[in-house]
Amino acid sequence: MTAGAYEWEAFRAFLDRGVADALSARLESEGVPTKLESRRLESAVETHFVVFVTKKLAHRARWILAQLPSDEAEVFFMATAELPGPE
Q1: pLDDT at 16
Q2: Res 52 pLDDT > 90
Q3: Least enclosed by CB within 10 Å: which of 12, 27, 32, 37?
């Protein structure tokens, strides 16, 4: 599926790319198309990663997220089976 075929909605933003990738992968596995964009914060020093979902399936994405643990480290572990840590 091409990204241009959808109307996108910003869903969640993270400071950690791995967590954003993990959430994106989980939503994709549940049938919710996603795209990921990096954005610099005002200071231009920090970047955050925004997970976008299709507007049509945003309600499904919210339901899926509600079923996941709320801690970013837990979400990362659930999606990758790896413990987050310094790289």
Answers
A1: 84
A2: yes
A3: 37
Residues 34, 55: Cα–Cα separation, whole Å: 10
Q: Token pair for residue 1?
A: 């599926």
CA atoms within 13 A on the CB side of 78: 18
Is 15 a residue whose pLDDT tops 60?
yes
CATH number, domain 3-80, options 3.40.50.150, 3.30.70.1530, 3.30.559.70, 2.60.120.510: 3.30.70.1530
Question: What is the model's pLDDT at position 78?
Answer: 61
- Using CA atoms, how far residue 9 sits from 18, 60, 73, 79, 80, in Å, is 20, 13, 24, 22, 25
Instruction: Identify the sign of the CA torsion 61, 18, 15, 3.
Output: negative
Residue 67 CA: distances (Å) to CA of 43, 63, 70, 75, 76: 34, 7, 9, 11, 14
